[in-house]
Specification:
- There is one protein chain.
- The protein has about 700 residues and is mostly beta strands.
- The protein folds into 4 domains: about 100 residues; about 60 residues, no CATH class; about 120 residues, no CATH class; about 300 residues, Kelch-type beta propeller (Neuraminidase, 6 Propeller), CATH 2.120.10.80.
- It is built from no helices and 54 strands.
- The strands form 13 sheets. It has an 8-stranded antiparallel β-sheet, with no helix packed on it. An 8-stranded mixed β-sheet has the order 17-18-19-20-21-22-23-24, with no helix packed on it.
- Strand 7 and strand 8 form a beta hairpin.
- The radius of gyration is 50 Å and the shape is rod-shaped.
């Protein structure tokens, strides 16, 4: 059309039914009309319908709208403040974006969503379905800032039930079903549903065996509420594979999530403090509790009872060396009919071997203190009751805990006496033939016959169970014609036996000199160093040292290699009449107070370190201590009066067992402060001289 068509025509239509209007005509002759409707709405209209309108009524209804090509409002503003955009079709694009989008809302740049100023309502984005934003199926994303301090603000994903599914705090912690996470990732759940799973999908598993799952859980369905664990290809003690409700194809406890794999898992049970490692085979076979830890103990194929630090059900095969207390332990040599009735003996370096009693050593260099002799029995001799000293002798067989009275065998009686012993003979030092009194006399008896000896007697041979003959010089080449008497008179002296050196030490009891009896020659002599003159002395011979404790609280040890004395406190300071029990297990036992109290101390023999204290079952003193191979005996004591009360002391577990009549000394009712000796059924090494 020509420019002459351009026009603006105003038609008041006053007094007419037609609406007042203004007609706007451009060059294209496609006019737009501004009309005033009867309700005073101003409406802009074109050839295709209403373009937009504005209403003067701000109380209700639409006060402003812009129509789309269909005539349906693309923008509508209601008097209540509601604004509808693209209610029928189309999209909203905020920010410059040259590309069309198929999204209802497209934002280029930053978008800020805040809560209303002064309001406690959080800023949220609501998601719903079916045209509604509430009820089941709806979800919310929000930031609950107004109700918390800055450090506790959290972002959340919330369901229609108002439960927080996922949260993230301002400080950087993430919670799952937890709006107050205490760590970087903190998950809350219910019984059997508190699980965390990582999955390698089958499509990414190059092995072609399906999904691979690693799972962690707290609370175990059907077992415990407070148990946890971590497992590979295993569900949480539940036949269902959460979060689905379908049964696993591998039913039973801890079902496999993928039956193409086996399973391995660790369980933590804080009550009663239990840790276990378990597996399942590829065929589903269960092997539970393969390794378990409880009470500070380890169990293999067994739940540990707490009785042993390591408990194993089944065989043990050691590849490499096996050590006990830092020392290499050898395996057992072969066993057959030829070794029946023999002893297993260690050579201390070249392994172990079987040896019969009285047999010479089968391995060179045998020098093990514990196994150089194998103690099978012992003797108790002398002692007293009231003011009456004894000459009696009792023999104790350690295999069956039986003590037998063998008669009044000692040449002199003695009340407060002590003794030493060699591989073949026992010695009683200070026999005096009266209740009390100093004496230098030493009595001796054969450890295998129990018969009292006289000086110059032939000695018991290691090659047979009898005497070699009357010629003392014909016994293994040793000259035995010396005197075994002490060089000083003593009363209740202290005695100790050095087994490796085959010597006995005597000190105290009225003389500070130290006598040393050389068993091979049976010569008694003084050492260059002195002990203490005090009486009531507890003596105890260990591998390289002998320990002595006097009633006056003096405590010393004597080094066997050079016969030198050193001070060392290893027992109590008010010892009274307590005695000591040596062992071949690297420690000894000694009373720490007088005979009206019960303390007992375990002491390491190599350095005199106190290891532990015990309370005995009864007060005691003046004990008769007899050393054995793996256990020892207290054969009578003073407990207000002299008695034959007997106990068996187990070296491996420090237990003390009260024994009955069969094990008690006999012949006299009451026998304390006697001398004890230990006898070997086999000696496995030539003696040191």
């Amino acid at each position: 059309m020509a420019n002459s068509d351009k026009d603006i025509l105003i038609t008041p239509n006053k007094g007419q039914t037609a609406l007042p209007e203004i007609k706007f005509v451009g060059q294209g002759n496609d006019p737009i009309y501004l009309r005033v409707l009867d309700d005073n709405t101003i409406s802009f209209e074109g050839s295709q319908g209403q373009l937009w309108s504005i209403n003067n009524n701000l109380t209700s209804g639409t006060i402003f709208q812009v129509a789309d090509i269909s005539g349906i409002p693309a923008i509508a503003v209601d008097a209540n403040g509601r604004i509808d955009i693209a209610g029928n079709s189309g999209y909203v694009n905020i920010g410059y974006n040259a590309n069309n989008t198929d999204k209802n809302l497209a934002v280029t740049g930053k978008m800020h969503i805040t809560s209303a100023q002064g309001s406690s309502e959080p800023a949220e984005i609501h998601f719903g379905e079916g045209g509604t934003l509430t009820g089941e199926g709806s979800m919310y994303i929000g930031y609950d800032g107004p109700n918390y301090s800055d450090n506790n603000n959290y972002w959340y994903v919330r369901n229609g039930g108002n439960t927080d599914i996922l949260t993230a705090t301002y400080g950087g912690a993430v919670g799952i079903r937890n709006n107050n996470p205490r760590t970087v990732l903190h998950l809350n759940g219910g019984h059997t549903t508190t699980q965390f799973r990582m999955t390698l999908p089958a499509a990414s598993n190059g092995a072609g065996n399906g999904d691979v799952n690693l799972q962690m859980w707290v609370s175990e369905g059907g077992v415990t509420w407070d148990g946890g664990g971590i497992g590979m290809n295993v569900s949480n003690y539940n036949t269902y594979s959460y979060p689905t409700s379908s049964n696993s194809s591998d039913n039973g406890y801890f079902p496999r999530l993928n039956t193409n794999f086996g399973a391995a898992y660790i369980r933590f049970l804080p009550n009663p403090g239990y840790l276990s490692f378990s597996t399942r085979n590829n065929d589903g076979t269960s092997y539970r509790d393969q390794i378990a830890m409880r009470y500070g103990c380890l169990g293999v194929n067994v739940v540990p009872s707490g009785s042993y630090r390591i408990q194993v059900t089944g065989d043990i095969n050691v590849t490499g060396k096996y050590y006990v207390n830092g020392q290499e332990a050898s395996g057992l040599p072969s066993q057959n009919d030829l070794t029946r009735g023999s002893y297993l003996v260690s050579d201390g370096g070249n392994g172990a071997f079987w040896q019969y009693p009285g047999q010479t050593a089968q391995s060179t260099g045998v020098d093990s203190w514990r196994y150089r002799s194998l103690i099978t029995h012992g003797y108790i001799s002398g002692g007293y009751k009231g003011s009456q000293p004894w000459r009696s002798m009792n023999k104790t067989w350690h295999q069956n805990d039986t003590t037998m009275y063998t008669g009044e065998q000692v040449d002199r009686s003695a009340s407060y006496c002590d003794g030493t012993w060699s591989d073949y003979n026992g010695y009683i030092h200070g026999t005096v033939n009266s209740y009390q009194g100093n004496s230098s006399h030493t009595s001796s008896y054969n450890l295998h016959t129990g018969i009292c000896r006289n000086q110059g007697d032939g000695r018991f041979s290691q090659y047979s169970y009898g005497y070699e003959g009357d010629d003392p010089k014909n016994v293994m080449g040793y000259n035995v014609t010396g005197g075994w008497q002490m060089n000083a008179g003593r009363n209740d002296c202290g005695c100790a036996t050095a087994q490796k050196e085959q010597a006995g030490y005597i000190t105290g009891g009225g003389s500070s000199t130290t006598n040393k009896l050389h068993f091979a020659t049976e010569i008694m002599y003084n050492t260059s160093n002195s002990g203490d003159s005090g009486d009531f002395v507890a003596g105890c011979g260990m591998e390289s040292r002998s320990y002595f404790a006097w009633r006056n609280s003096t405590q010393k040890y004597l080094t066997h290699s050079n016969d030198s004395w050193s001070n060392q406190g290893f027992a109590g300071n008010n010892r009274g009449w307590c005695k000591a029990l040596p062992t071949k297990w690297g420690h000894f036992y000694i009373g720490t107070s007088n005979n009206v109290t019960t303390p007992l101390r375990k002491v390491r023999g190599s350095d005199g370190t106190a290891l532990s204290n015990y309370n005995r079952s009864r007060a005691a003193g003046e004990e008769n201590m007899e050393m054995g191979q793996d256990w020892g005996y207290k054969l009578g004591d003073f407990n207000g009066q002299q008695n034959n009360h007997t106990e068996k002391w187990n070296y491996s577990n420090d237990s003390i067992t009260t024994m009955g009549f069969a094990c008690r000394p006999k012949g006299h009712y009451g026998q304390s402060s006697a001398a004890c000796s230990s006898a070997a059924g086999a000696v496995t090494v030539t003696r040191n001289t």
